[in-house]
Design a protein that fits this description.
Keywords: Plasmid. The chain is mainly α. It folds into two domains: about 70 residues, Winged helix-like DNA-binding domain superfamily/Winged helix DNA-binding domain (Arc Repressor Mutant, subunit A, Orthogonal Bundle), CATH 1.10.10.10; about 120 residues. The protein is built from eleven helices and four strands, in the order αααββαααββααααα. The strands form two sheets. The chain has a two-stranded antiparallel ribbon with strand order 1-2. Strands 3-4 form a two-stranded antiparallel sheet. α1 crosses α11, α6 runs antiparallel to α7 and α6 packs antiparallel against α11. The protein is globular, with a radius of gyration of 18 Å.
């Protein structure tokens, strides 16, 4: 697995720009460890700092490209992980993408138009479906979660976003300014792709 330095740099591939606090929220490291790692990564040229936020550099990406095969060799050779990823990509991931489209748009006279969210029943059905997919995803990714606790953390964060969406905070379905279902799902997907050495499907 990744040491705190590597994990902090890795987290910047999941969130393109972020503060130490935002990175710690994703990777579950103590904030002091994240700050120390960022200070070293900036000195190494692996990360750039700008007004309290950080982003990975090409040099940082090159470092990770060398780290991943070593850190995740056993995980990548595990048939149970391969099976879990196949199920994820062909099943729940496609369902979440489709439901996100259904959330953002509605069909009117055979044409897709932006959803103005005036129909609460329609929106609530989408949120309920996302909840069922979330439950299914917990089972699908169980082999990965056994090997990497961050997978469970992502799933918990998606669950927290769903609770807020169910409570009427609609931004928590696909909003980009909050840790919405869609935002955290994207981060989780990128994380497990990097663990397993896969490319994001087109």
């Amino acid at each position: 697995m990744l040491d705190p330095y590597e994990l902090t740099v890795h987290t910047l591939t999941l969130r393109q720009l972020g503060s130490a606090e935002q990175l710690a929220e994703i990777n579950a490291l103590p904030i002091g460890d994240v700050e120390d790692a960022l200070e070293k990564a900036v000195a190494d040229g692996a990360v750039m700092a700008a007004r309290g936020n950080y982003m990975i550099t090409p040099a940082g990406r090159a470092v990770l490209d060398g780290v991943y095969p070593r850190a995740f060799a056993d995980l990548r050779s595990d048939p149970a992980i391969t099976e879990a990823m196949d199920s994820f990509e062909t099943g729940v991931n496609k369902q979440v993408l489709a439901l996100t489209t259904d959330w953002q748009t509605v069909e009117v006279d055979g044409t897709r138009v932006s959803n103005d969210h005036a129909d609460a029943d329609y929106d609530n059905k989408i949120i309920a479906k996302l909840g069922r997919v979330h439950e299914k995803t917990q089972k699908v990714l169980r082999p990965l979660a056994h090997r990497d606790p961050l997978v469970d953390r992502f799933l918990d964060r998606i669950g927290a976003a769903l609770i807020r969406a169910e409570g009427g905070e609609s931004d928590y379905v696909s909003g980009v300014r909050v840790d919405s279902v869609h935002t955290v799902w994207f981060q989780m997907h990128e994380h497990i792709l990097r663990l397993t050495g896969r490319e994001r499907p087109e």
